[in-house]
tRNA pseudouridine synthase
Amino acid sequence: METESSRTCSQKAIPPIEGSTRPKSDLNKKVCLYFVFHWCTMSTETMESSDEDGPIATSTSWRYCLHIAYYGTGLVGWQRQQQETKSSSGHDSVQEVMEAAVTETLGASKRVNVTGVSRTDAGTHALYQFGFIRLNSELHMTMDELKDRINAKCCNRLGNGRVVVLGVTVPTMGPSRIRSRYKKYIYYLQQGHRPDLELGKYSWFLGRRLDIQRIRDALKFLEGTHDFRPFSQGLLKPKYEDMTTVRTVISAKVVVRRNVNFSLDPQVSGSGEEVIDVADMYREPSNSIVYDKHNSDDSNAVATGDHKKRKVEQAKVGATVHFVCIELVANGFLRHMVRRIIGTLRPIGEGAQPATRMQQVLNGEVQPGPSAPTKALWLHRTWLTQEEYDRDCAVECCTL
């Protein structure tokens, strides 16, 4: 979403024209009113904001940006839960984990707020979440030390590597509310002869074959500026009628990959061997079952437990798992928007609906598909400025 800059009154008092008959007392009143108004405007700009959407910089505070990555499994999403509405499961939110770690690390007597740029749903993973903190004094440690200590606190609370701070920087953005310029989400659909249960924590297995060209045709309808209210969750109620739901999708594409990396390292996560011939996804592996010669002999082989175990393990190795990666880049996303797009794409890819079904949903003619599971959804990239996005696009073009 575009950053909204704070506006100030920069008008100056207009001096009287020479020879004017305007009473001096009236002029003094106007000059006095101008300075009072200008002082109030400046004071308002430097006040701390309690708005959770983003802090406002002040001349007497120090801001730091935390680059955060996390696996969303077992967490209730990014946003801190109110005590009265806290999940009955007792699971934490990422924001609560980060705020507890930062507060304890800094030895603060009150909670240090960590304001996120994105609000991911329960179970959604993220490689590029940004959290901003504002302190009343400078750090008494280096930013690398702050990162390491926060990670140690998170590890003690959740276990190793589930929520990590990848870096701490001083934001270069001006005194405006923190907003993202663009975001990139990737949804991973697992395809193969059998599901990979371990990789199923980060992807959604669909047993029916997907027609990649039909998916590609449907995604074209999403590109451009549209009102995505039909894909939103809960925004069709009358009280949200005036809410802006127009978004611009910069890119919507599908890529098939094998051996996808699902780590929390943004440099390699999501990478894998791109599959050009999508028919490879459905070819039977030639070595799907390989018998161990040491545990069988011609006619009198005994199927022992160990022998069966080895056969199953070798069958798993022979069966290649492929991933249909749906990649969406936009200037903003509505609640459940990506997951409902995936829910609409599924019957299109399976051949039950035409690609034009996507356009019908956009036009409000038919209902979207149900929300797809969150476990396969990744916040893959967040750009805070247009310059960052342009720079990454230039690098990507050079590597093609």
In short: Residues 183 and 382 are 5 Å apart (CA to CA). The radius of gyration is 27 Å. The longest strand covers residues 246-258. The chain has a mean pLDDT of 79.
